[in-house]
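Dear H.,

Thanks for agreeing to be a second pair of eyes. The structure we're designing against is below in token form, covering all 407 positions.
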């Protein structure tokens, strides 16, 4: 009888954006490098080298704070086109090894080796070879987690970065959780950690001392059940295939807070165009749109909608996002950041013909494709709707978004 083995791997590229910069510009290697917008802007750190992390820099920190904390760091503007291009090549590389590759983001993927004993006798050897080839062929390091489930493979890949390789054997998940810090439990966000710290719950052992009833009071019933499953070494019931579906997103921290309906619509149009371009470039279709809004006080909210039309164009994404905003907020405080995501991604070859698509939809998709073709042909050419120019004009008067004034 064959011994049970772990067959789900999670591969996570280490400090991906910075790693690409250091690969392409060797003079950056071994130095504190920060990728993001201008330190004078309100943008945040997209990625930072491990040398910068040792000095307290982390992703999501404001560029202004990062510059104040580490002014001697090397600041680089992101080259998203290069990151996406390299990511596509790496995902194809993963397909040489695993029959099932589920890309989670630009820099991570699950590799499914279930039912592959006839191909691979020892997955540890196979994955170590993958890790070594990735470094030699692409000049990039990765961390790998191998486990019986997606959830624990994700935990494992994050346990020993960078260039780590952690194997969780079947029936050892519970003992592995005991080695984690509470911050490493995937699914516990900043707010949940903050609430736990109020009750002086800072370690896995502290969590185990709390009764399910009390944990429900602190975090809510669903989160308490989620944590309870993890502590027992079980993938959380809420962590299903749908919770690891592929998605892509764009977001922007604006030069000035958005305070008018016109400014919000201009911001959403700009984001919709960028997201449509990304979907077209990657040949993806989607049927779920998610809107993210962060206000001046940093409070952040998301709303989403499932739509029938899977092959999205800029106007469809824009109209959906505006509809979500108007439904959720009749009036609003100044907005610092907005983002739009497309979820449930599939390759466009899987598109079911849409009998409800109009000639207008077809024409609008052709416009998006033309814009993408021009960008591919001429490089940095940028076609932007005229309405989006208002994003960079100061406007302090608050209005209601439902009151449409643009044409």
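And this is the sequence the design step returned. I haven't edited it by hand at all.
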């Amino acid at each position: 009888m064959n011994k049970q083995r772990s067959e789900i791997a999670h591969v996570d590229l280490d400090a991906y954006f910075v790693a690409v910069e250091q690969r392409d510009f060797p003079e950056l290697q071994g130095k504190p490098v920060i990728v993001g917008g201008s330190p004078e802007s309100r943008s945040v750190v997209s990625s930072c080298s491990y040398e910068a992390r040792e000095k307290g820099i982390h992703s999501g920190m404001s560029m202004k704070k990062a510059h104040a904390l580490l002014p001697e760091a090397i600041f680089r503007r992101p080259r998203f086109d290069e990151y996406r291009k390299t990511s596509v090549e790496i995902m194809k590389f993963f397909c040489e090894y695993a029959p099932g590759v589920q890309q989670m983001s630009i820099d991570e993927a699950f590799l499914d080796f279930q039912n592959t004993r006839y191909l691979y006798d020892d997955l540890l050897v196979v994955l170590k070879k993958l890790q070594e080839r990735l470094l030699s062929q692409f000049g990039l390091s990765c961390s790998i987690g191998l486990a019986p489930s997606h959830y624990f493979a994700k935990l494992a890949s994050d346990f020993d970065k960078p260039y780590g390789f952690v194997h969780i054997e079947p029936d050892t998940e519970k003992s592995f959780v005991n080695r984690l810090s509470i911050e490493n439990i995937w699914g516990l966000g900043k707010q949940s950690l903050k609430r736990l710290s109020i009750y002086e719950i800072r370690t896995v052992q502290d969590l185990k001392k709390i009764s399910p009833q009390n944990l429900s009071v602190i975090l809510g019933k669903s989160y308490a059940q989620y944590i309870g499953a993890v502590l027992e070494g079980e993938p959380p019931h809420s962590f299903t295939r749908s919770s690891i579906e592929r998605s892509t997103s764009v977001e922007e921290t604006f030069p000035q807070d958005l305070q008018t309906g016109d400014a919000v619509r201009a911001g959403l149009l700009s984001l919709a165009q960028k997201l449509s371009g990304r979907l077209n470039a990657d040949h993806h279709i989607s049927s779920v749109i998610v809107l993210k809004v962060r206000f001046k006080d940093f409070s952040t909210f998301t709303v989403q909608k499932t739509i029938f039309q899977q092959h999205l164009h800029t106007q469809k994404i824009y109209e959906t996002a505006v509809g979500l905003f108007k439904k959720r907020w009749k009036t609003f405080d100044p907005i610092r950041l907005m983002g739009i995501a497309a979820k449930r991604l599939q390759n466009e070859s899987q598109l079911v013909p849409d009998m409800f698509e109009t000639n207008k939809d077809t024409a609008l998709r052709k416009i998006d494709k033309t814009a993408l073709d021009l960008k591919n042909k001429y490089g940095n050419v940028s076609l932007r709707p005229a309405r989006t120019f208002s994003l960079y004009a100061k406007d302090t008067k608050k209005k209601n978004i439902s009151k449409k004034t643009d044409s």
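Two observations from my side: Residues 176-240 form a domain with the DNA polymerase; domain 1 fold (CATH 1.10.150.20). The chain has three domains: 1-167, 176-240, 245-392.

Warmly,
E.
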